[in-house]
Specification:
Argininosuccinate synthetase, chain A, domain 2; 14 strands; 13 helices; alpha/beta; Rossmann fold; five-stranded parallel sheet
Length: 401
């Protein structure tokens, strides 16, 4: 009996040619694993294509709900943004895909797994670190590190030679990854960081020029730091993100152009569209400003930076990520309430915030003096705070004499 290999399959250029390549170069039956994380593809067409190119079996898993509740929303709670801009759309999807790919391998009795990531990118680390953490006994075959193909043009040649239809063309060479959280764009004119993205590069969000000429308001409700409703309507995770994506996209929200530092040491340039995620992150931050005390809020900023780095580097299945997650979850107990955002041509402004667990005290914060705060207490506080500074000044004065 031939051994089986499970390929993380999307139906894009790379994975489309990997199935015939594996069959030509290895004695495996190829099982194509299709993870639905909200990429919007015609899944039936993807399945048909996998069979047509040589897969012995195609397995589809709908992972949208778990992707959001167990990966995306925890990252929003953490405030995880990589290098100031990137909301980790691809980074968060890879570990759940790898997790279920491994489960398929176990269930089908496969001895190996494969992916379509290049040897230059971050995704190879994200997939393969997950494989090692979850199933170190599985063999990993990475075509991009073995075959003689050197470019996307070479891949297009291979596809044409094997009669494989692909969406990419020599004129439309962008590499894209889409899921419920975002769509990314790489390649083409973006390889020169001095080139602005073409209008046709963006595929999801409207440009500010195309966006409505009126402000649109949206209210998001959170319980324990998790989104539960939009505009007063309780929704499940998938519906919340779909609604916010639609609202954000039509208002030109969520476009990012980023030169980033890959884990492997290469600088790369990509453009990202994250309409709903941008709204969730903005609203969550504003609610935390009401509900977290100062020391926790300040320390959590460090946690968010580290969390983003760990996720970006592909280290999801590690004790560090799990421990960071435990801290974040603990910090969210009192992050409850609603935030209203005003959206206008790519801008996100805060139109209101309200929480029953808010630490904001109008009676104390107000310029009106009241019983809640005795101004005379400030004198002693400042003198104790300034004791080291006064001592240092006295010593320096004596030295000068």
């Amino acid at each position: 009996m031939r051994e089986k290999i499970v390929l993380a399959y999307s139906g894009g250029l790379d994975t489309s040619i990997i199935i015939p390549w594996l069959k030509e170069n290895y004695d495996y039956d190829v099982i194509a694993f299709v993870a639905d994380v909200g990429q919007g593809d015609d899944i039936e067409a993807v399945v048909e294509k996998a069979y047509a190119t040589g897969a012995c079996k195609v397995i589809v898993e709908d992972l949208r709900q778990e992707f959001l509740t167990d990966y995306v929303f925890p990252a929003i709670q953490a405030g995880a943004v990589y290098e100031h801009k990137y909301l980790l759309g691809t980074s968060l999807a890879r570990p759940i895909i790898a997790k279920y790919q491994v489960e398929v391998a176990w269930r089908e009795g496969a001895t190996a797994v494969s992916h379509g990531c290049t040897g230059k990118g971050n995704d190879q680390v994200r997939f393969e670190h997950a494989y090692q953490a979850l199933a170190p006994e599985l063999k990993v075959i990475v075509p991009w590190r073995e075959w003689t193909l050197q470019s996307r043009e070479d891949c297009l040649d291979y596809a044409e030679q094997h009669g494989i239809a692909v969406a990419q063309s020599r004129e439309k060479i962008h590499s894209r990854d889409r899921n419920l959280l975002h769509v990314s764009h790489e390649g083409g004119e973006l390889e020169d960081p001095n080139n602005a993205p073409l209008p046709t590069t963006w595929t999801w969000t409207k440009s500010p020029q195309q966006a409505p000429d009126t402000v649109e308001k949206v209210t998001i409700e959170f319980k324990h730091g998790l989104p539960v409703a939009v505009n007063g309507v309780a929704l499940d995770a998938v519906a919340i993100v779909e609604v916010l994506n639609e609202i954000g996209a039509r208002n030109a929200i969520g476009r990012v152009d980023l030169v980033e530092n890959r884990f492997v040491g290469i600088k790369s340039r990509g453009c990202y569209e994250t309409p709903g995620g941008t709204l969730l992150l903005a609203a969550h931050r504003e609610l935390e400003a009401l509900c977290l005390d100062r020391d926790l809020a300040h320390f959590k900023q460090h946690i968010g930076l580290k969390y983003a780095e760990v996720v970006y580097f592909g280290l999801w299945f590690t004790p560090l990520r799990e421990s960071l997650q435990a801290f974040v979850q603990s910090s969210q107990a009192d992050v409850n309430g609603t935030v209203t955002l005003a959206l206008y041509k790519g801008n996100v402004d805060v139109a209101g915030r309200k929480s029953n667990t808010s630490l904001y005290r109008p009676d104390i914060a107000s310029f009106t003096m009241g019983a809640g705060y005795n101004q005379k207490d400030a004198e002693g506080f400042i003198r104790i705070l300034g004791l080291p500074a006064r001592s240092r000044a006295i010593i320096h004065a004596e030295v000068v004499k």
